[in-house]
Design goal:
Blueprint: H1 2-7, H2 14-27, E1 32-38, E2 44-49, H3 56-62, H4 89-96, E3 98-104, E4 111-117, E5 120-127, E6 132-138, H5 145-148, H6 154-171, E7 176-181, E8 184-189, H7 195-203, H8 205-208, E9 212-218, E10 221-227, E11 240-244, E12 247-249, H9 256-262, E13 274-280, E14 285-286, E15 297-298, H10 301-315, E16 361-367, E17 371-376, E18 379-384, H11 385-396, E19 405-415, H12 418-426, H13 428-433, E20 437-440, E21 445-452, H14 453-462, H15 465-476, H16 481-493, H17 503-514, E22 529-533, H18 534-540
Length: 543
C-alpha cells in the first residue's frame, strides 16, 4: 500500500512513466534509445538503450525504494548533473505495473532478466542481450483501479506521451532516437551535430531555416537559443522550450520577458516559438523542487529572465550593439513593417444591398484598422473586426457538413513534428468534411490538396502552415475534435487586426455579424464588442 501511494508522486500516466525510464537511459550514457508504445503506453511501453548496463545485483537494488547510483555524498546534491537521482521512479512504476528489466554491463558474458509484479520479484534469471538495458512496462495501474479509471482513452494518452518524448528528443541532440507506436515508426533520427539540426529533424528543415540563432555567455550561464519570427506564432505555448543542461523544464515565469518583447509583433492570443538551450553552473540552480523535476529554481530568477529577454531582443533585431560571439548577423531578421493604411484590402465581403434606412444601426467607420464603430438608437458599439469575422465564419459551417472545397492544381506540402503528425492522421476524414483535403506524404509530411472554397483565395495569401499547425496543437490538448477543427480554420481565415476595409466591406461584416446566433462572443469565448449606452456616455461626460 505504501508503494502504491508513493507511486502517485512520480507516476500519474504513461507519459510520466516514459519520461522517467528514458531519462534513466540517458543518465546511463545511452547513445541510441528505442521506444515502443502500445495502446498509448497503458498496455505496453518498452525502452531499449545501449548504455552502461547493470549487473544482476545492481538490477535488484535498482528496484528498491530510496536507492540510487547517481549520488554518493551529500555534496553531490549541490552539483546535480544527472536527470534523475531520487531513487523513486523505478520502484514506483514496479508497484503499479508489471515490469521486466533486462540488462547487460560491459565485460559481462551475458545479460540478466528480472520480472516484478506489485513490487515482488517473480522472475530472476539469465537472458540474452547486448550491452545496455531494456525496461518493459505492461498493464499500467492494473492493480489500482481507482487510478486506471482516471486515465484518458489510449489515443489521448498516446498524444501526451509523444509530446513528452518530443521534448526529450529535442533536449538531447547527441542521442539517436527511434519511436514506434502501434507497430509503426513515427520517428527515427540519428545523432545531430547541434541543436538546430535536431530541431530540423523534429519540426522539418523548412521550419528550422526560419529560426534566428542567438548565443550569449555570462558568468555561470551559457545560452544557445533559436527564436521563431512572428509569422511562426502559435495559438498555444506548445512550442516554447527550455532545456537546462539537457533537462526539459517548463519555461514558466522565466519566459515573461520573452513574451513582453514579442507582444508588439504578435496577434492577440499568439505565442512565440523558441528553443532555449541553457547551461548553468549546478550551484546556481536547484532542480530538486518538483517530484518529476519539471520545474527548476535559480539562485536569481530575475537574472535568468533578463538574460532570456535580452536574447529575444537580439533575435528580433532590437539590439543596437554588435552581435554576440558566435551569433550570425544574417540570422537576425527585422520586424515586419507596420500595416499601411493605403494597402489594398485582402478580403471582399459580399452582401446583398440593404437600405440603411431599414437597419436599426448605422456604421460610423473603422478606427486603428481594427475596430468598427456602430451606433444605434440605444448605444454605441466598438466591434473587434477579427472576432466578428471569426464568429461569422464559424457559424457558416459549424456542423462541418457540405462545405464546398477548392481543389488546388499544385498541392501544398506541410511538415509537422511527429507527435502532431500522428494526431492529424486520426482526423483526416473529419478534416475532409470541413473542406480541408489533407493526405499523408511520408512520416511527418502532408499534402494539402484542398481548402474550404469561401476561404481558399485569402488563405493562399496568408499561408496554410499556421492553421494546420493550430489544428494539430488543439488535438494534442485533447479538445473536442470537430468544433475545434473548424474553430481554428475560421480563426486563421478571419480578417486580421490592421486590415483596412472599404466602407461597403465594413457594412457587410457588421450586417453578417449581427445576423449570427451568438454575436456576443467569438468562437474562442472572447467578447466581440464593447457597448456604451448613450445615458452612460452622458454621465461620464457630466451632462
Amino acid at each position: 500500500m505504501i508503494r502504491k501511494i508513493a507511486a502517485g508522486e512520480v507516476v500519474d500516466r504513461p507519459a510520466s512513466v516514459a519520461k522517467e525510464i528514458v531519462e534513466n537511459a540517458l543518465d546511463a550514457g545511452a547513445r541510441r534509445i528505442r521506444i515502443e508504445v502500445a495502446e498509448g503506453g497503458i498496455a505496453r511501453l518498452r525502452v531499449d538503450d545501449d548504455g552502461v548496463g547493470m549487473t544482476p545485483d545492481e538490477m535488484r537494488l535498482a528496484l528498491e525504494r530510496h536507492t540510487t547510483s547517481k549520488l554518493s555524498t551529500e555534496e553531490d546534491l549541490r552539483h546535480i548533473r544527472t536527470l534523475g537521482f531520487r531513487g523513486e521512479a523505478l520502484a514506483a512504476i514496479c508497484s503499479v505495473a508489471r515490469v521486466t528489466l533486462t540488462s547487460r554491463p560491459e565485460g559481462s558474458e551475458g545479460g540478466h532478466e528480472v520480472g516484478v509484479e506489485e513490487g515482488v520479484v517473480t522472475v530472476d534469471q539469465p537472458a540474452p542481450r547486448p550491452v545496455g538495458t531494456t525496461v518493459e512496462v505492461r498493464d499500467l495501474f492494473w492493480n489500482v483501479p481507482a487510478r486506471r479509471q482516471f486515465l484518458d482513452a489510449p489515443p489521448v494518452e498516446r498524444r501526451r506521451l509523444l509530446s513528452t518524448l518530443r521534448r526529450i528528443v529535442l533536449a538531447r541532440p547527441a542521442t539517436a532516437f527511434t519511436i514506434r507506436s502501434e507497430g509503426r515508426d513515427l520517428l527515427d533520427v540519428p545523432p545531430a551535430e547541434n541543436p538546430l539540426v535536431r530541431i530540423g529533424q523534429v519540426y522539418g528543415e523548412a521550419f528550422a531555416s526560419q529560426l534566428a540563432a542567438v548565443e550569449m555567455e555570462e558568468p555561470g550561464f551559457r545560452l544557445q537559443a533559436w527564436f521563431g519570427p512572428p509569422i511562426l506564432a502559435r495559438p498555444t505555448r506548445v512550442d516554447q522550450h527550455l532545456f537546462l543542461s539537457g533537462r526539459t523544464v517548463r519555461p514558466g515565469v522565466l519566459a515573461l520577458g520573452i513574451a513582453q518583447v514579442y507582444a508588439r509583433y504578435l496577434p492577440r492570443g499568439g505565442h512565440a516559438a523558441f528553443f532555449l538551450y541553457l547551461d548553468a553552473d549546478p550551484q546556481l540552480a536547484d532542480v530538486n523542487v518538483h517530484p518529476r523535476k519539471e520545474e527548476v529554481r535559480f539562485r536569481s530568477d530575475k537574472a535568468v529572465m533578463d538574460l532570456l529577454r535580452r536574447a529575444a531582443l537580439r533575435a528580433l533585431g532590437g539590439q543596437t550593439a554588435a552581435p554576440a560571439p558566435g551569433e550570425s548577423a544574417a540570422a537576425v531578421w527585422s520586424p515586419p513593417p507596420p500595416f499601411s493604411a493605403g494597402s489594398e484590402p485582402m478580403l471582399l465581403l459580399e452582401s446583398a444591398p440593404v437600405s440603411s434606412i431599414t437597419r436599426p444601426w448605422r456604421l460610423v467607420g473603422q478606427v486603428q484598422g481594427s475596430y468598427l464603430i456602430v451606433e444605434s438608437e440605444s448605444d454605441l458599439e466598438i466591434v473587434d473586426q477579427h472576432a466578428a469575422h471569426e464568429r461569422v465564419l464559424f457559424e457558416q459551417s459549424r456542423d462541418g457538413t457540405g462545405l464546398p472545397t477548392q481543389e488546388f492544381l499544385v498541392p501544398v506540402q506541410i511538415e509537422v513534428p511527429f507527435d502532431r503528425a500522428e494526431a492529424l492522421r486520426k482526423v483526416l476524414p473529419l478534416l475532409q468534411s470541413l473542406g480541408v483535403h489533407l493526405e499523408p506524404f511520408g512520416e511527418r509530411t502532408f499534402l494539402l490538396r484542398g481548402w474550404p472554397a469561401p476561404l481558399a483565395e485569402r488563405q493562399s495569401r496568408l499561408g496554410f502552415q499556421e492553421p494546420i499547425a493550430a489544428v494539430a496543437e488543439q488535438l494534442l490538448e485533447g479538445e473536442p475534435v470537430l468544433v475545434e477543427l473548424w474553430r481554428e480554420v475560421a480563426c486563421a481565415a478571419a480578417i486580421r487586426a490592421g486590415e483596412t476595409l472599404s466602407h461597403e466591406e465594413q457594412e457587410a461584416l457588421v450586417e453578417r455579424w449581427k445576423g449570427t446566433t451568438e454575436p456576443a462572443r467569438c468562437p474562442h469565448g472572447r467578447p466581440v464588442a464593447v457597448r456604451l449606452s448613450w445615458d452612460d456616455l452622458a454621465r461620464k461626460l457630466g451632462r
